[in-house]
Write a structure and sequence with these properties.
With 680 residues, the protein is mainly alpha-helical. It has helices spanning 42-54, 68-77, 103-114, 119-132, 150-163, 203-211, 221-234, 239-248, 254-263, 287-296, 300-309, 318-325, 332-344, 366-378, 382-405, 409-427, 434-446, 448-453, 457-467, 478-489, 494-510, 514-531, 534-547, 558-571, 577-586, 594-610, 614-625, 635-649; strands at residues 4-5, 57-61, 87-92, 139-144, 167-173, 182-186, 316-317, 349-351, 361-363. The protein is elongated and about 100 Å long. This is ATP-binding protein.
């Protein structure tokens, strides 16, 4: 193991031997602030200067384009600490030419690491170099971009340090050597989110705005800052990519750049020579070329796993990676070691605590994901990977819906929260045929609780509007899609929602679909409640509770219908309000629905308050607000509960019900609906 590290477990720089702390970030050498320090790397620069005075073997590690070489140059050009070697020999292991000045020693070191020379020759050259500089003078050997000779460094550098007591080594590499005497300073990508305490621009945004030519990105105020943050997010906060993106502002406005980078990143390039500082290295002239240098270090198996795992738009687990990557010459047991190697190279990033109780999740930065997808298309595997991605999405959403319907609703919320980016990316893909349309519709329907309960109505409605007209009329999914679309559009277009329900009702009856008929009645009850027709709402909700079978999947349960009915009865001082709510909480067939139980307890609090039992109502409301963990209710419902609690505390009767229909932020255009008659 490495003896020290310059980052915390979250990837943020931590405290080194001098006790300095720093924040994550990084950028190319020429992008500096007014003080000459790298933007966003001020802490790391100071820490590295301290390490150069105290340690003999230091590795600056991090993913491609994070600014490892830039940080090494900045630390060497700044004011050195006492004890730091006065002279440095820099060997660029990625460059064919030798270093300027001490070319003989640099050539011997390069030859030894590449296998064309011996350790003795390198040691002799370094000894002679040290002697020319004065007796006892220390030499700092800087080995830049050592990934291609990683194993040679592991084998030779400890022996070189043992032979030369006055030698110190600074190494830049994507992965540490793993030596006992090694101190590792890990660099993380720049953060693009503003400081939550002060609102100050993030380091990534400051870098982009400073590097933008002719101040083009600096105009526009808050909107420009938001677009700049989007650009930095799309390139994963990598300083190399941020600087290349800034160069593109010569040719396009910031909004156009953000839109292009949202889909692809590897097209970014940079001119051969910068306006300041040294010429751009060949490997940094295009983002595709920089990422390709990492690709060249991988074995065939690792390359295949990389390209297939690039299908994921968000984070993923090892198990889902095995499902996506195995086959076609890749055995399942080969996926995990390949992911470990890719993580060491910075191709995938571990999220959270790798030693935690839950399975660790991995994420691929956007530029590396874009490169992997290019390789996947080049190999002719894109269609197969897309089909697997659809299967994975259907299975995943089926599991979340199953968890919700069987009483594990907090777990369903947590699982969907982790996989939401992958599901959203899947649903935004255009359908490729009848079976594909059915698969996408089923995926949307499995997430009914996300769209309706957690108020993602706009997104769910748009998916159903696009996909429902492509379903066959006799599809068993049609009724489910109609009542869900009606629920999602009820607030913005109640008339269109009613037309959808009028079509779904006879179809459910003719098909003998009790669950579908009951859910149509449930949404009709919510519509009546929205119109203020409390009598019709109570009748429809009661009908829904009686019609929806126990333990049925695919929509709100009978317990949910009873809980809404209890809320309505509590609000109207109905004598059966308490009995209805207690039935939800005590019936073994109903009490497993956490969402329904929350509403039933809310109903009891309202019932107690309206009956004059303020103390009991206050206790019930406080207990509901004290629930921790993944919430199964929305922020609007929690706000309504807080308002009810304030009314109780002030001695007022709660006057409003919690929101039961999701908010729609735009009036929808519903598909054409042909209402069937009772005879049909």
């Amino acid at each position: 193991m490495a003896r020290g590290t310059g980052t915390s477990p979250s990837g943020r720089p931590g405290k080194g031997p001098s006790g300095l702390g720093s924040r994550g970030g990084g950028l190319p050498a020429q992008q500096t602030g007014g003080s000459g320090e790298l933007i966003g790397r001020e802490g790391e620069s100071e820490l590295l200067r301290d390490l150069l005075a105290a340690q003999r073997l230091i590795t600056v590690a991090g993913p491609v384009g994070v600014g490892k070489s830039a940080l090494a140059r900045a630390a060497l050009t700044g004011r050195p600490r006492q004890g730091t070697p006065r002279r440095a020999l820099r060997v660029n292991l990625a460059a064919p030419s030798t270093a300027r000045g001490d070319s003989g020693a640099a050539a011997c070191v390069r030859a030894a690491l590449h296998g064309g020379g011996t350790l003795e020759d390198a040691a002799a050259a370094l000894t002679a170099l040290s002697a020319r500089r004065g007796r006892g003078a220390e030499t700092l050997l800087v080995l830049d971009d050592a990934d291609a000779v990683h194993r040679a460094c592991q084998r030779l550098l400890p022996r070189l340090l043992e032979r030369l007591p006055t030698l110190r080594i600074l190494l830049t590499c994507r992965q540490p050597l793993g030596l006992g005497q090694e101190y590792v300073l890990r660099l993380a990508p720049l953060d693009w989110r503003p400081d939550p305490a002060t609102g100050a621009p993030a380091p990534a945004v400051r870098l982009l705005l400073r590097a933008a030519p002719a101040a083009r990105a600096r105009r526009g105020g808050e909107e420009a800052a938001e677009l700049a943050a989007e650009v930095c997010r799309y390139v994963g906060g990598l300083p190399l990519a941020i600087e290349q993106a800034a160069h593109q502002l010569l040719h396009m406005p910031l909004r156009t750049l953000a839109e292009r980078l949202r889909h692809r990143q590897c097209w970014l390039t940079k001119p051969v020579a910068g306006t300041a500082g040294p010429a751009v290295p060949a490997r940094h002239r295009s983002l595709r070329q920089a990422v390709g240098a990492v690709y060249d270090l991988c074995s065939r198996t690792e390359r295949v796993v990389w390209s297939r795992a690039a299908t994921f738009a968000g984070s993923f687990t090892e198990a889902t990676a095995v499902f996506m990557c195995a086959g076609g010459g890749i055995e399942p047991h080969q996926v995990a070691p390949s992911l470990a190697r890719l993580a060491a190279l910075g191709v995938v990033e571990p999220l959270g605590d790798p030693g935690g109780a839950t399975a660790p999740r991995l994420r691929m930065p956007p530029p590396l994901r874009d490169f992997g997808r290019e390789r996947l298309a080049h190999a002719g595997e894109f269609d197969v990977a897309h089909e697997r991605y659809l299967i994975h999405g259907r299975q995943l959403t089926a599991v979340t819906e199953n968890l919700w319907s069987t009483g594990s609703q907090p777990h369903a919320v947590q699982l969907l929260r982790e996989e939401l980016e992958n599901v959203q990316a899947l649903l935004h893909q255009p359908p490729r045929g009848g079976e594909h349309v059915a698969g996408l519709v089923e995926t949307v329907l499995n997430l009914w609780f996300h769209w309706a309960v957690h108020e993602a109505a706009d997104e769910g409605r748009e998916h159903l509007r696009r996909l429902l007209p492509q379903l066959p009329p006799d599809s068993p999914l049609t009724v489910r899609a109609q009542w869900l679309l009606a629920w999602l559009t009820a607030r913005a277009d109640p008339q269109g929602a009613g037309a959808l329900l009028d079509e779904a009702w006879p179809a459910a009856l003719l098909a003998g679909d009790d669950a579908g008929a009951g859910r149509v009645a449930y949404v009709q009850g919510l519509l009546a409640l929205q119109h203020g027709d409390l009598g019709a709402a109570a009748q429809l909700l009661d009908e829904a509770a009686d019609t929806i079978p126990a333990h049925s999947f695919g929509g709100p349960s009978a317990a949910a219908a009873l809980a809404v009915l209890a809320l309505l009865r509590a609000h109207t001082l109905h004598p059966a309000a308490r009995t209805t709510a207690r039935r939800v909480l005590t019936d073994p067939a109903l009490r497993g629905d956490t969402w329904a139980c929350w509403m039933a307890r809310y109903a009891l609090a309202v019932h107690d308050a309206r009956r004059g039992r303020e103390a009991a109502a206050h206790r019930r409301a406080e207990r509901l607000l004290a629930v921790r963990g993944p919430s199964v209710v929305t922020a609007r419902q929690t706000t309504a509960l807080r308002r009810t609690l304030r009314d109780i505390e002030r001695g007022r009767t709660p006057a409003t019900l919690p929101p039961l229909i999701p908010v729609s932020h735009a009036a929808p255009q519903l598909p054409e609906v042909t209402t069937r008659t009772a005879a049909s």
